[in-house]
Specification:
Elements: E1 11-15, H1 19-31, E2 35-39, H2 42-51, E3 57-61, H3 69-77, E4 87-91, H4 95-104, E5 108-111, H5 116-126, H6 144-150, H7 155-182, H8 187-200, H9 203-213, H10 219-239
Parallel strand pairs: 1-2, 1-3, 3-4, 4-5
Helix pairs in contact: 2-3, 3-4, 7-8, 7-10, 8-9, 9-10
């Protein structure tokens, strides 16, 4: 994108010890009008985030000189202001390194040598100008433009997918309620709900499911997701994508089905 072209701005924290990679990211994303602050070690990144955690995206190298990338990601995830902020690991090493980063809370991983095109596509997939599925209160409950693009403007398909999403979400919620009741993890159900919500454009539910996926089960988080799904139903009613009423909470008949 040429300089001077209007574009959304992200506030990006880059923890990268390799000068060439740092320069590449700073130049490429700076031309897109994103604001990048770079540090060369994990301690500096953590100090920066603790001092001022108003960032939309964090990029973390897994080969920082003072701490493993997964350790830094885990520490950043403990900061309340970064609970919903996408963190992307820049990985060099085995699949175990990537797995450790994802387990610690990374939203995605990029390999080395770092290339800009995959990074740009990832930023777009994570949510473009708003820093991914970490949302503010001003973000739409449902991205109807995304849904209509997904269905190619077919109102019947839109209604069918909306109904399928709501019924499937209730099944995932039932699994989470059961896990909470039994005192066990609900990670897989929250992860599935997050993916289904993101696919359909239910961004607020996706954000809350992401938080739930990386948190201990709690009644408060469950109720927050339930309220967000109620808002989704209201949006579908107003938009004309009026699905059939979903089953009462707690009732399940079929196994969960993935949204395409």
């Amino acid at each position: 994108m040429p300089d001077g072209t209007a574009a959304p701005q992200l506030r990006i924290l880059l923890a990268e010890e390799q000068a060439a990679a740092c320069d590449l990211v700073t130049l490429a994303l700076g031309r897109l009008h994103h604001r990048i602050e770079s540090v060369a070690d994990g301690g500096s990144a953590l100090a920066r985030a603790q001092r001022d955690a108003t960032v939309d995206l964090v990029l973390v190298s897994t080969t920082l000189p003072d701490m493993p990338g997964a350790a830094l990601i885990g520490a950043l995830r403990q900061l309340p202001a970064l609970e919903r902020t996408p963190i992307v690991a820049i990985c060099q090493g085995s699949g175990a390194v990537r797995e450790a980063c994802l387990t610690a809370g990374a939203a995605a991983c990029l390999g080395r040598p770092l290339e800009i095109e995959p990074l740009l596509r990832l930023i777009e997939r994570l949510g473009g100008s708003r820093g991914g599925i970490g949302l503010s209160a001003d973000d739409p409950v449902v991205d109807l433009e995304h849904l209509r693009h997904f269905t190619e403007g077919d109102p019947q398909l839109e209604s069918e997918l909306s109904a399928l999403f709501l019924s499937t979400s209730e099944l995932y919620l039932q699994e989470m309620r059961q896990a909470l009741q039994e005192g066990r993890a609900w990670t897989s159900s929250a992860h599935a709900l997050k993916g289904a919500s993101a696919n359909l454009g239910a961004r607020r539910v996706a954000a809350m499911a992401l938080i739930a996926e990386r948190s201990e089960p709690s009644r408060g988080r469950l109720e927050a997701i339930e309220r967000a799904l109620d808002e989704v139903r209201a949006v579908f009613d107003r938009s004309g994508a009026a699905p059939e009423p979903c089953p009462d909470r707690g009732e399940t008949e079929d196994a969960p089905r993935e949204i395409p």
